[in-house]
Amino acid sequence: MNDDTPYPPDRTDDELARLDITVLLRYGLTAEPGARRTALFGDGAAAAAVILDRLGTEPRSVAFLADTVRAGGLTRAAELPEPLPRREAAAVVREWLRAGTELAGGITADDTAATWLHAVATIIELKRLTRARGGGR
Fold first, then answer.
1. If DSSP codes are grouped into helix, strand and coil, which group holds residue 113?
2. C-alpha angle 8-13-16 in degrees, rounded to nearest 5
């Protein structure tokens, strides 16, 4: 690999949207820092942002959900009747939250999930700012 090759390789939004985020969560939330955690916070966060952005989700809604996860845990958040305002986005994110509850990772998994959701919210916001400036897809 030469120095010009990006790592990880560039992926299009369509490629990111096809990633299995529930698998990335199952392996990344309770993993020690390393490849699995990097995958969750790298491609996994970018993929989640693409999906939620395409569903019209506001970054502040995802940030609020992250704060809810941090305060009450994944289990409580997964039980919310509407974890995000839009029905389709709520269904998608509920599946992700449930994947996290299956781990029994306790407070550590809850905090990691909250941090990850904040990262997703940040990426959505950056995507929107880039589009607003005429530089995004």
1. helix
2. 55
41, 114 Cβ separation under 8 angstroms = no
Per-residue pLDDT tens digits for 6-65: 445 688 999 999 999 999 999 999 888 888 899 999 999 999 999 999 999 999 999 999
| Cα 127 to Cα 21: distance, rounded to the nearest angstrom | 19
User: Can you list the alpha helix ranges (DSSP code H) found in 19-134?
Assistant: 21-28, 35-39, 45-54, 59-79, 87-101, 106-132
Where does residue 25 rank: exposed (0-12), middle (13-18), buried (19+ CB within 10 A)? buried
10 Å Cβ neighbour count for 120? 30
Query: What is the model's pTM?
Result: 0.89
- The model's confidence at residue 1, banded by pLDDT at 50, 70 and 90, is very low
CA angle 54, 120, 137 (to 5 degrees): 40
**Residues 6 or more apart in contact with residue 58 via CB below 8 angstroms:** 85, 124
Tokens for 34? 């390393």
Query: What does the block give as tokens for 17?
Result: 């949207």
